[in-house]
Design a protein that fits this description.
three-stranded antiparallel sheet; D-Maltodextrin-Binding Protein, domain 2; about 450 residues; alpha/beta; disordered N terminus; about 40% helix
Length: about 450
């Protein structure tokens, strides 16, 4: 399934979640896209993590070796059926030999298929939560509060209702600069840029070597999502920044997060650091060009790292660092969730299903296979690129969900933020683009009585 759906997901939750492009996993990000971005550092020390496990142990479901049951897991990862999932099951059954797990592949749009199953009352035991109101969660899913993970998981509030937890993210993503190390070395770049000025200097060196500094995939639109959903929030230092649009008739200004973020991309284009013809880009080809060193960088989520490697290079030739959006030298980046595990409340093997979900989160290693950051706070990634990213001391901002009113107004105003990015970057007068959409926003807000 297409990672493009990840990035579109961000829009959906905003309208939400994140559109991503082209891999074996279909992602559903329920955040305001920062990467979506957010304010809250996710680092948690190991002592607290260990302590939380102990304090919650008494509340956990029966999880001994004698736990039994037969469960079905509906997954969007069709590429893992008969491969990685078989290896997971072998390890899982070494610990829980009496739980039988069957993997059911979603061959169509996962979100739609899940909703059809919900409507028919025929839910699998374990599944990912589709885009439904949180108020509907108790109708279909069992509370996961007894797993003893409440104090450890990121994005705990995303799939909670009335103080109860119904979904746990399968893994998290961030946005940053994915780069070809050989291209950097050949251009004489010995250290990754830590400030915007250093980033521009690196781009100039790459350009002088005949390398396209940054592949934007401008024409495809969805690869621009992070510029308008993630970067503004990080620049503002406010996880809830997009929801502040409710308090104004002019949400888009040159001196706020939107103007500053889009201004960065506009500057890169004006200096000739993007593709020569940004209106005729090709997503699939760009991965090969990054792998070969024809292009040097992407600004995308960490999900694209494995795709670049798969497009024709080695893992040790691909690096990852935070986008230095200003000259402070203090890195900050967005954090956003992927799909959320859930257990059907009507499952005949609820305890077995919960045991499986907990094992997938704590022991499967799925986050490393999928290229995600762990759903558990403070757990360091084993992936070299994410280790490099985290070693910069970057503060990860946990994303927030759009206020429903923001989504309603945006829809009425027909506000397509990635399209606004395209207009802004190419306009002779970028202020006129903001004027146009501020007017549309104000009218829709007034028409809806907000």
């Amino acid at each position: 399934m297409s990672k493009k759906l990840y990035s579109l997901s961000f829009v959906m939750i905003m309208a939400l979640s994140s559109a991503i492009a082209g891999c074996g996993s279909n992602t559903n990000n329920n955040t305001n896209n920062s990467a979506a971005a957010t304010d809250k550092p996710t680092a948690t020390n190991a002592e607290n993590t260990a302590g939380n496990t102990t304090s919650n142990a008494a509340a956990e479901p029966a999880a001994g070796a004698d736990t039994s049951g037969k469960i079905t897991f509906l997954t969007n990862r069709t590429d893992m059926i008969g491969k990685e999932y078989d290896e997971y099951l072998k390890r899982f059954n070494e610990k829980y030999p009496n739980i039988k797990v069957e993997f059911e592949a979603s061959q169509t749009d996962y979100n739609q298929q899940a909703k059809v199953r919900m409507a028919s009352g025929e839910l699998p035991d374990v599944m990912f939560i589709p885009t439904i109101p949180n108020s509907d969660l108790p109708k279909y899913f069992a509370s996961l509060d007894d797993l003893g993970l409440n104090d450890q998981v990121t994005f705990k509030d995303f799939k909670s209702f009335d103080g109860k937890l119904y979904g746990i993210t399968t893994g998290n993503s961030t946005s940053g600069i994915v780069y070809n190390k050989k291209a950097f070395a050949d251009a004489g770049i010995t250290e990754v840029p830590k400030t915007w000025d250093e980033f521009l200097a690196a781009c100039e060196k790459l350009k002088e070597k005949g390398v396209i500094p940054l592949a934007s995939n401008f024409k495809d639109k969805w690869p621009l999502n992070d510029w308008v959903y993630a970067v503004p929030r990080v620049i503002e230092g406010k996880a809830d920044f997009p929801n502040e649009k409710l308090n104004t008739d002019t949400p888009f200004t040159m001196d706020n997060g939107y103007g500053k973020a889009l201004g960065l991309l506009r500057e890169l284009n004006e200096k000739g650091y993007l593709e020569k013809d940004i209106n005729s880009t090709n997503w699939e080809q760009s991965k090969k060009d990054i792998a070969s060193g024809k292009f040097a960088m992407y600004f995308l989520g960490n999900w694209v790292i494995n795709q670049v490697i798969g497009a024709g290079t080695t893992a040790d030739n691909v690096g990852f660092f935070p986008l230095p959006y200003d000259n402070s030298g203090t890195p900050s980046a967005p954090l956003s969730p992927d799909f959320f595990y859930a257990v059907s409340k009507n499952s005949k093997s609820v305890d077995a299903a919960k045991v499986f979900v907990k094992w997938m989160i704590e022991e499967s290693g799925y986050e490393d296979f999928a290229g995600f950051i762990s759903p558990l706070k403070g757990k360091e990634s084993s992936l070299a690129q994410l280790k490099e990213f985290q070693s910069t001391g970057v503060v990860l901002q946990e994303g927030t969900v759009d206020d429903a009113k923001v989504t309603e107004i945006s829809n009425k105003a027909q506000l397509d933020l990635p399209a606004v990015v395209q207009e802004f970057v190419l306009a002779k007068d970028p202020q006129s683009v903001f004027d146009k959409w501020n007017k549309a926003w104000a009218k829709a807000k007034k028409d809806l009585g907000y």
